[in-house]
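Fold this sequence, please.
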Amino acid sequence: MKVVDQKLQEQKGELKQVLQRLQQFTHRISHTESGRILADLRDRIDEPFMFVIVGEVKAGKSSFINALLGEPDLCAVAPSPMTDTIQQIMYGETLKIEEVSPHLKRIFQPSEILKEIAIVDTPGTNTIIAHHQEITERFIPGADLIIFVFEAKNPYRQSAWDFFDYMHEEWHKKIVFVLQQKDLMDPADLEINKRGVVEYAGKKGIKDPVVFAVSAKEELEGYHAQSGFELLKVFILDHVTGGKAQQHKLISISDTVLNIISRLEKGLNDRQLQLDADIAFRQDIKWTLSDHGQQARHQADILIENLMSSYDRVSGKYEDELSDALSFFPVLKRSIGAIFSKSQSLKSWLEGFTHRLQADFGTGMQEKINDRVLDLAESIQQMAHNIDLQIRNSKTILANDHEIFSEIAQRRQNVLRELREAFDQFLSRTENFTTRGLVDTDTRVGTNVAAGSGVAVVGIILAAVTQGMVFDITGGVLTALGFLVAGVTLGLQRGKVMKQYRSEMEKGRTRLQQELATELYAYIETLKTKMNDQFSKFDELIQIETEELAVLQADLRNVKTDLENIRKVVLRAF
């Protein structure tokens, strides 16, 4: 009896092209396992319908194969387990055994039935040699039908059902359950075990599981009516092969390819989720820089406002003193006094006035703003430390042991590790927190900065910035004032002097305010830019991932669409 017939050749070419495109896709993403399966499927499109026989050692698989094909000596049968390797049984003009590897053997037999089918006889699912099962699993994806053979007396062994879980969950293959050696069972007990297998399979997601009870011994001895093989062969002819063999084979292959595509889609989805998380992480970093930058600017504004208030108080205090000193009688008194002692002169008083004003501007104002400088420094330090914490807590979705994209995951982890190390180094180096011209390295402040490290010196730097500016501005004011007052005679030009004093003080105030804002804002922006620049390699990774993923997702969608169109044509032929 023919078990397999072949039809529907016209879809083979298109399916081969889809397989080739998908194989190229797996090569691009370096997923060799899927690529190997796809290459194997391409080779098997033109091969006979393939049965994969699985089951435990001593379940009678080899005898079952011989009985199914009507060839008593096709597979070796012995009291001890003989199938210690996978045996791929194929048609050949002459008997030939080809040792593909220590664990894989091809047997070529001049049997007519093998022109239409191929059989893969596997080691027992309960073998203690792990690589046997691994090689067995290589044949599952390309199987057109899996026949799961149980020992009729005990179809409940855990190792067999564990292997069933792998096949069903991973590949969703068409499975027929066979209870072999039924001749050793009481009919009532056999029926109980059949119902037990149906119940087990149903609980594991098999809808309407198909179970046959057979005896290879009775079939090979010629007791065909009672062996149970006739019912199995009729089922295979009606539901699996027969006149629809090629359709079934193409559908079986396309099912496997869809399963592979589903895995690839899941992998790409994981990769997309990681990319989305990285983009969100990067946006959070930018938000942190922006938010803390705004806080730092606000602290800088408060610092400037406090400095301006101190400036106005000192300026007003000395304006009143100067106005009083340049009144007519005080000037006249100092002019007369100067005749007897130079220390009583207006010039001498003005020098003292200058020193006191200088002291109030230099030390008094500095004390007022030191606390605000520390607030600004703290904002900048907090910005740096928050970013450091965000880097350490960045979300990892694509693990290094990912089934498909472990290399991509490792590449990302390397970039992230380099980012953490680079940012740690950035925070520890003083030069990253200084800008040219802010601190004189010859001064005590410069020495303190040189001895410091990273964000710890920000307060010192900012204090030096504000102090230097106060000295620079007030020094210019006092110089202009000195020249002006030196030309005063007997207070006759008092109004002119006071007007000029107020003018110079206002100019100094405006200049100080503008330069402080410019320097402090620039300092904040410089640090933000330096911190952001640490992410250049990470940004490059995001850019590459965005571009690569878009192409890969589009290509996989196109392959899937073409495959589904082929399936529609094949299914219509049923």
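The chain has two domains: 48-243, 271-396+404-549. The CA atoms of residues 165 and 204 lie 8 Å apart.
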